[in-house]
Amino acid sequence: MLKKISSDSYRLLAPALSPSSSSSLNRAEIERVTRIINDHPYPNHPIQPILTKQIPLSSLSPEFVSEVLGRLFAAHSNGLKALEFFKYSLKAPKSSPPTSDSFEKTLHILTRMRYFDQAWALMEEIRKHYPDLLTFKSMSILLCKIAKFGSYEETLEAFKRMEKEIFRKKFGVDEFNVLLRAFCTEREMKEARSIFEKLHSRFKPDVKTMNILLLGFKEVGDVTATELFYHEMVKRRFKPNSVTYGIRIDGFCKKRNFGEALRLFEEMDRLNLDTTLQILTTLIHGSGVVRNKIKARQLFDEIPKRGLTPDCGAYNALMSTLMKCRDVSGAIQVMKEMEEKGIEPDSVTFHSMFIGMMKSKEFGFDGVCEYYQKMKERSLVPKTPTVVMLMKLFCLNGEVNLGLDLWKYMLEKGYCPHGHALDLLTTALCARRRANDAFECSRQTVERGRCVSEPVFRMLETSLSSKDELRKLEELKKKIQKLHSFLPPPGTQLI
C-alpha cells in the first residue's frame, strides 16, 4: 500500500480508505462477485459480458459496490478490472447513485498501478455526472500518487489542473492542505517546505496545515526537526491541539524516548487538551518499544477511566507489547479478553500473534499453524505483509503444502496474493520438483491480470521439460506479453 504515514494521529488528519460495514450484507455474495472479477482472464477476454450475465444490476446497492471495491483494493486486483466493475455499477438505477467511497477506492486502485490516464478520465466523468463525489479524499489520492511517482513540478501542475478543470473553483486552505499532505506522505519535506513558503501567502494556513507539516517531519524520523518546527508553529501563533501533541508523542515513542512522551502526555492534562484513544494507543505501542509491559497495561486500563472505549487497535497495541516482551501467554489472554468483550480480532491481531509465536520457544511453528487455522475459521483475509511472512515461514520450514493451502485460501476469498508470495512459493515448489503446481499458481496470477516476475518465469522454463508443459509455458508467455501491452509504460504521463 503506498509509502504512507503510518501514525494513528494521521487518521485525524486524513482518514484512510474506510471499509463499509458488512454486518448487514451478504458476505458470501460479496466474495462471489469479488472472485468473478478477480478470476476473469482480463484483458484476454472482455469483462463486461460476464458482469452482465453473473451480476444483476438490481443487486448492486451502493454499499455492496463499495464493499466489493474494498475487497478488490485489498487484493491488489488489476486496476482496469476494478474500473470496469465501477463503470458497470454506474448503469444501476438512478435511485442507487454511486458513493464517494466507491469512486475513491476505484481511483486508488488505478493510481496504485499508475493508470493515470484512466484516473484523470474517471475524474472528468465523475465531474460531469456526479460532481458531488469529488471530495478532498479523491483529490488527495491522485495527488499523493503523482507525488510518489512524479516530480515536484508535475505535482504542482496536477494541483492547478484540478483547480481549473476538475473542481472548477478557487481553491482555499483545505485544498492547500491536501497538496502539502501529498508531499508529506511521501516524506519529501524539502518539497513540502518549499510549497509552504511559496503559497502560504495565497492560502492562509491553519493549525491543520501546521500539523500536516509537523507530521511529515516526524515521519522522516528526525525528532529534532519535528521539535524545531513545533516551536516555529508556536512562534507563528498557532495554538497546538491534541493532534499536535499526538504527533510529538508518537515521534518520541518511535525514538525510544518514552519518558519524554509521557511528559508530553502529562502536559496535555495540564492544558486540558482532550486525550484521544489514538494517543493512548500510541503510548501503549511506545511501552512496547521500551519493553515495559506493566506501563502498557496501566495505560490500557486508563482508557475506560477517561471515558473512552478500547477498540481493536488498542487491544492490538497491548498484544504487540506483550509479544515484544516475550509474554505470549499474556497476549493470548488479552485476545480472549477482547473476544469476550465482543470485539472481533482483525488481520493485525493475527499478524502480531504470528510474529510473537515465531519468536517463542514454547509455541513456535506449531503455535503459528494453530492460529493460522483459527484465522481461516474466522474467514479473515490477511494483509500482504502477513501473507508474505506466512508464505516464507511455511516454505522455509519445508511445509510447502501449507504454502499452497494459503495460496488457495486467498484465491477462494477473491484475492490474488502479492508477487513476492508467488516468488517464495514457486521457488519452494520447483525445489521439490513440483513445477506443475508452480506453473498453475503462475497461470492463476496472470489470468487475474497480474504479472509474474522474470525469475519466476525463468524458473518455470528450467523446471518444465515435456512437450505439453513447454506448450503451456509458451501460451503463458503470450498472455504475459498481452498483459504487458495493457500495463502503463515506465514513462507514463501523469498529468
From TrEMBL:
Which UniProt keyword terms apply here?
Repeat
Pfam families per UniProt = PPR, PPR_2
Q: Which InterPro entries match?
A: PPR_rpt, TPR-like_helical_dom_sf
Question: What Gene3D superfamilies does the entry give?
Answer: Tetratricopeptide repeat domain
PPR repeats span which residues? 206-240, 241-275, 311-345, 383-417
* UniProt similarity note: Belongs to the PPR family. P subfamily.
Cross-referenced NCBIfam families: PPR
* Protein's UniProt name: Pentacotripeptide-repeat region of PRORP domain-containing protein
Q: Which organism is it from?
A: Arabis nemorensis
